[in-house]
Amino acid sequence: xxxxxxxxxxxxxxxxxxxxxxxxxxxxxxxxxxxxxxxxxxxxxxxxxxxxxxxxxxxxxxxxxxxxxxxxxxxxxxxxxxxxxxxxxxxxxxxxxxxxxxxxxxxxxxxxxxxxxxxxxxxxxxxxxxxxxxxxxxxxxxxxxxxxxxxxxxxxxxxxxxxxxxxxxxxxxxxxxxxxxxxxxxxxxxxxxxxxxxxxxxxx
Length: 204
Prior knowledge:
- The protein is α/β, with parallel strands linked by helices.
- It has 2 domains: 5-16 and 87-202, HAD superfamily/HAD-like (Rossmann fold), CATH 3.40.50.1000; 18-85, DNA polymerase, domain 1, CATH 1.10.150.
- The chain has helices at 18-29, 38-45, 50-59, 68-86, 91-102, 115-124, 148-157, 171-180, 199-202; strands at residues 5-8, 106-110, 133-135, 164-168, 183-186.
- It has a 5-stranded parallel β-sheet with strand order 3-2-1-4-5, sandwiched between helices.
- β2, α6 and β3 form a beta-alpha-beta unit.
- The longest helix is centred in the middle third of the chain and has 19 residues, at 68-86.
- It is globular, with a radius of gyration of 17 Å.
């Protein structure tokens, strides 16, 4: 079946924001006398919503319980402050999205970031207007690695999983993408996301 849509994760796929989330979270956690190491961010926390990160730190005894929503709010505020530092226009992404649209593909962004932050990042990177659909993790009941966000996107686009390609980098996102039944393009990071990744779709 011919592919009709490409669904992108955001952080680490279209913008180099994983480092930004790591920085924003640690800036917040230091207020409470703790932080996470880069290795554990890469191997476990990357791609999880902030609430899940904080809940895990509470479970480990590294944060006091009962402060999840307060810490989440502080982290979201810090994230907004540093978005312009990490979400800059990348012309390889602008060119890629333009080609996909001209070829008739539907384009969606499905992120474990909350809707407000997600929109700010896309606008800062100057790619917001390319998307037919944008979904944040606060618009579904289950975050990645559950496939709900991708299945919701497919339903709204009125497409089947076999008609969709998903581009993901982090383990939680890759798991969600595979569980959705779509074709999955696994990338190492933003450097892999350009026209060459879609050569067979765009130039065959």
